[in-house]
Amino acid sequence: MVAMVELQINEPTNVPEWLFVMFAVCTTVLVAVHIFALMISTYLLPNIDAVSKMETPGGPTRALRDSPHERMRGFIELAWAFSTVLGLFLFLVEIAILCWVKFWDYSFAAATAATVIVIPVLIVFVAFAIHFYHSLVVQKCETSVQDIEQLETMKRELDTATVKVNMF
């Protein structure tokens, strides 16, 4: 938002209109993404705080299970993805576009240098994000498999106990 407000363009300029449009769209989407993530965080925190102070008949595990953060897990993950992944990606793109808008009339080399620096950073960022997300998915799958194995063990134990009870 500051980049859009503080950007000073000399008149007349040779910067093409499509570059201004790209800059405006990128800045607007960047701000919207962060405001959306902030909104979700702002509305969620009081709910989590309230649940953490609740005393329920089922104990703390029931309070956590009934907590809105479990029901809103998708929104939390969406806010995280928007703020970290998409927000940081757009911020890096914004820097490159801003350099082109600012230096178009003065130095093609400066704009190119900024782009040459940002592109490898974007590639590393995307690679890290993919690796990190893949690690999270693998961990989630392993946890689910362990949970299923525990449920199967519990079922076997209950079946065994039921058979023993029925024998007596």
Q: How much of the residues is beta strand, in percent?
A: under 5%
Q: What is the H/E string?
A: HHHHHH
How far apart the termini lie comes to: 75 Å
Q: Helix/strand-derived class?
A: mainly alpha
Largest sheet: none
Q: What sort of overall outline do the alpha carbons produce when their principal axes are compared?
A: elongated
- The level of helicity is over 70%
Tally of DSSP β-strands: 0
User: Unreliable runs, pLDDT <50, ≥5 residues?
Assistant: none
- In CATH, the homologous superfamily of the domain at 14-53 and 69-135 goes by the name Calcium release-activated calcium channel protein Orai
User: If you compute it from the alpha carbons, what radius of gyration comes out, rounded to the nearest whole angstrom?
Assistant: 26 Å
Oligomer: single chain
Query: What is the average of the pLDDT values?
Result: 81
**Number of helical stretches of at least 4 residues:** 6
Structural descriptors:
single chain, 168 residues, mainly alpha, 85% helix, 0% strand
Folded structure, characterized:
- The structure is a single chain.
- The protein has 168 residues and is mostly helical.
- It has a domain at 14-53 and 69-135: Calcium release-activated calcium channel protein Orai (Butyryl-CoA Dehydrogenase, subunit A, domain 3).
- It has six helices and no strands.
- It has helices at 2-6, 17-52, 60-65, 68-71, 73-103, 108-167.
- The radius of gyration is 26 Å and the shape is elongated.
- The chain starts with a helix and ends with a helix.
